[in-house]
Amino acid sequence: MKRIMFRLFGILSIFLVLIFSNIKASDSAKEDWDLAKRSKGVSIYYRWVTLSDTLKAREMRAVFIINAKISSIVPLFQSPGSFKKWAIGIKKCQMETVNDSHWITYSMMNYPWPFKQKDLVTESSVEESAKMTCIQIKAIPDRVAEKPGIERLKNYLGTWNFSTMKDGRTTVEYRVMVYSKPVFPRFIQDPLIIKLSIQSLVDLKHLAENL
Predict the structure, then answer these.
(1) The pLDDT of residue 59 is above 50
(2) What values do phi and psi take at 79, rounded to 5?
(3) Which letter does DSSP use for residue 156 in this model?
(4) Which of 53, 76, 162, 195 lies 20 to 30 angstroms, CA to CA, from 133?
(5) Cβ distance 146 to 120 under 8 Å?
């Protein structure tokens, strides 16, 4: 029971924030990256970003390598069954496919009592260039009617960048920026977020490599 609550507590820490990513350098002053942890082939970094005279936020960056082609990785974001296998904290997931590079996702988070249940509606799009494939994810809270008793998360932006290496493997970079006060003290929250983030990314890696 303690282990389950520890995991759910970490899930709650991750999702009870407003998350922003891909803020342009011209819009903010950014410090150097500090390595927070390197484990199981995943490196987690943090840095502070000054957004205004009175507003400062922390940006998280995760970097790792998957021994699979990009074409094998992207579909793991497009299927509810595959997504739930690696995305920690998802109780329910439904997707609406617009086309091969555009889809809508409804996710309900798995929070423990007595915390209020939360859900999230996002729009995902794939952008490809000669050097990189990128998945941009943003919240579209008004796309699906809110459900009684469930709080809708309304601010979310995420970016996944995939680059092909010379040996055929894929370098993955994921960035998010926490734009709110921590839900719990950082000395409690950070280790949980880092641990669960690494496990989620490792699950994604293993899933892609064993298709």
Answers:
(1) yes
(2) -120, 125
(3) B
(4) 195
(5) no
- With cut-offs at 50, 70 and 90, classify the pLDDT of residue 5: very low
Contact 46, 204 (CB under 8 A): no
Question: How far apart (Å, rounded) are the C-alpha atoms in residues 192 and 17?
Answer: 14
Those residues whose C-beta lies under 8 Å from the C-beta of residue 101, and which sit 6 or more positions away, are: 125, 126, 127, 128
SS3 call for 42: strand
User: What are the start-end ranges of the E strands in the chain?
Assistant: 19-20, 29-30, 34-39, 42-50, 56-66, 90-99, 102-109, 118-128, 133-139, 151-153, 157-164, 170-178
Structural domains in the chain, CATH included, are 2-209 (3.30.530.20)
Task: Inform me whether the pLDDT recorded for 33 exceeds 70.
Answer: yes
**CA–CA distance, 200 with 160 (Å, rounded to integer):** 14
Q: Quote the pLDDT of residue 94.
A: 96
Band the pLDDT of 7: cuts 50, 70, 90: low
**121 secondary structure, DSSP code:** E
